[in-house]
Amino acid sequence: MSKQVRTGVVEQLEAVRASLRSQPLSPEARQEMEEALTSLEQEFQVAEAADPTPLLDLLRDWEARLEAEHPVFVGVVSDALQKLSAIGI
């Protein structure tokens, strides 16, 4: 994975985490979202050494779930996917 791609992914994950902090969520929902984001970050670390396709699939699955449960985050995740796609992931 190129440095540019890694930087883009890290920046998008940080943007999602910042957006999460600013949302008025219940403690349970916040914890669930934090756990999902942590899982996503761990998947990214594994994907760095391998094919990035599973990471993109994971992001898309996460986006579909969020679209139903937390529509505010859909825009952030969609933006992240578009940017990752634009840099070749």
In words, what does this structure look like?
With 89 residues, the chain is mostly helical. It is 84% helix and 0% strand. The longest helix is centred in the middle third of the chain and has 22 residues, at 27-48. The protein contains 4 helices and no strands. It has one domain. The protein starts with a helix and ends with a helix. The mean pLDDT is 79. Helix 1 (3-22) runs antiparallel to helix 4 and helix 2 runs antiparallel to helix 3 (53-69). It has helices at residues 3-22, 27-48, 53-69, 71-86.
Task: Give a nutshell description of this structure.
By secondary structure, the chain is mostly helical.
Summarize the SSE layout with pairings:
Layout: H1 3-22, H2 27-48, H3 53-69, H4 71-86
Helix pairs in contact: 1-2, 1-4, 2-3, 3-4
Q: Secondary-structure element order, as H and E?
A: HHHH
Query: Tally of extended strands?
Result: 0
- Distinct helical segment count: 4
- The geometry reads as globular
Distance between the termini: 9 Å
The unreliable regions are: none
Mean pLDDT: 79
Beta-strand percentage?
Answer: under 5%
Q: What descriptors fit this protein?
A:
89 residues, mainly alpha, 4 helices, 84% helix, globular
